[in-house]
Amino acid sequence: MRLAAESVSLGYGADPVVDQVSLEIPDGLTTVIVGANGCGKSTLLRGMARLLKPISGQVVLDGKAVHKQPTKTVAKTLGLMPQSPIAPEGITVVDLVGRGRQPHRGALQRWSAEDDAAVAEALELTDTLGLADRVVDELSGGQRQRVWVAMALAQQTDLLLLDEPTTFLDVAHQIDLLDLLHGLRETRGTTVVMVLHDLNLAARYADHLIAMSGGKIAATGRPADVVTAARVEEVFGLEAQIIHDPVSGTPLVVPIGRHHRPSAHPHAQGA
Amino acid sequence: MSITAPTEPTRAVDVVRKARRAPRRHHAYVVAVLAALLFGAFVARVLLGDYIITVPDFFRILGGAEIPGATFLLMSEKLPRAILGVLVGVAFGIAGAVFQSTLRNPLASPDIVGVSLGASASAVFAIVVLDLEGLALSVAAILGALAIAVAVRLVAGSDGSYRLVLVGVTAAAAMTAVVHYLFTRANEFDALLVLRWLTGALNGVTWPTIWILLGFLVVLIPALAWISRSAQALQLGPDVATGLGVSRRRTDLLLLLAVLLTALGVAAAGPVAFVAFVAGPISRALNGGRTTLVGAALVGAIVMVAGDYIADYAVPGVSFPVGVVTGAFGAPFLLWLLTRARR
Ligand SMILES: Nc1ncnc2c1ncn2[C@@H]1O[C@H](COP(=O)(O)OP(=O)(O)OP(=O)(O)O)[C@@H](O)[C@H]1O
Ligand SMILES: [Mg+2]
Predict the structure, then answer these.
(1) Which of B12, B23, B287 sits opposite A129 (nearest CB)?
(2) Which residue ranges does the record assign to the ABC transporter domain (chain A) (predicted)?
């Protein structure tokens, strides 16, 4: 395994937000991190992408502490899409996606045909080729999100970390994007690590699921093993029934809201 | 990357090429128009005014001819003033655009956050207390600008350009007070000198000043252009930039070079108000919202040269320093930007 955390603690002040977490990211597979708002998912992802220096412990990439490696070398191996990136004013879609080529270019090297091809491929994969000459500020939230994913794809890294890549997308584009990432695994052997909020999609697309709670890891493993009624209650404080997803065979979480509990349901009383 | 059917990918690549070309073509057009405007302002500044120098006379004087009155006026007043205007405008324009785009805040330009006035205060200190001039004065201005920049950065902390602007504006006010104080201590109180170091002016410039400034710019600007090319990613914010392998330290290096440019401009012409501040936004508005160093440099130079022309001849018989004019135009612009930022 190429990417791992060794009892790493991360935070923004004195108190760690992620507390002594150890984990291994399986190569060539899709790892999904789930957990309640504010439990430290983004913090963990940023730590693994060397955006935060660990308070203690270390993140290891290819056998060496990621913070001790030249950042440009890391950028050729590990790509990142943060949770809410901001595009500079007036930048066009091609130019933004083209920025993903930066790690592959020397300081004196010019833009090449290979760069054109990589950008074109990224735009096609994310269904944004038609937006190529548009200004990013003037796109819808979902279009913008896909453009940022395209930038990460243009970087052509073996490992790809994405923080909530599906947030602004409609249902069809959510599935498209997850299929696309799944396809990368097949065609390029890309290792994908992403944060998702939709437990059902997480269970469906993850080979490896990490559930976080209060800055620690609550459970890891195959979705079928991790997603249980007791775990969902523990991690999200949500009562739910787990059934079998008829399409994928993975666990399907059916939340029980306050109004749907048997006690709150007059007709269910007799049953 | 992978080899697929030949028709599909070629088409996509063509779309990418075409989309990449459009903004570059627009930029080339904007640069051409700005260059023409600058040329016009430069010619007006050199040839027109109370005493008009004809084009043939201009070339004859440059060739070494002595035309009573005209030669002196051109070689020791009009021409150096126009050239200095261009150089200082370029320095301020680039410095402003670098500050605004790397700090991602249109208010965070060196003339607003105290860097210019830091250079000014230090230069005045060097003149009044240490009796320095020439190159030593440039060095003093650079040290002052650096000191203020570092102090503002330390007090404001590294995150959030909003705090940086607040601290910077306070520092600028303090530096103005320092300049005022130093002039009360100067033995020969010269009103024009005060104006130069508080508002900025191009009059009375000497050729050595121009050569010193030009020498520095020829080294600094290519260095800055080179670094800013690889630091483009910084405009995407620190997280994405790090993800792309551009370290945050590049920001500091870029800002350092911009501080040097500001200080050199101030050492030559004083802290001409708002030139650095307006150059970026104006060139950006012309260029479809995209910041480029060439655009900002040209707008800075146009504002300086045209502003100086207006300052010199707008009111018959009175010659204002250029900073009065740029200040008068810049202040409403600042207000406009502030009201826009609130939305
Ligand atoms: N830049 C920051 N400065 C200080 N505290 C922060 C910062 N970013 C996050 N935190 C704190 O760290 C904790 C974890 O935040 P994090 O962003 O990792 O949560 P998350 O699991 O990604 O949540 P979400 O699902 O809402 O994205 C939160 O309590 C948050 O307030
Ligand atoms: Mg998050």
Answers:
(1) B12
(2) 3-239
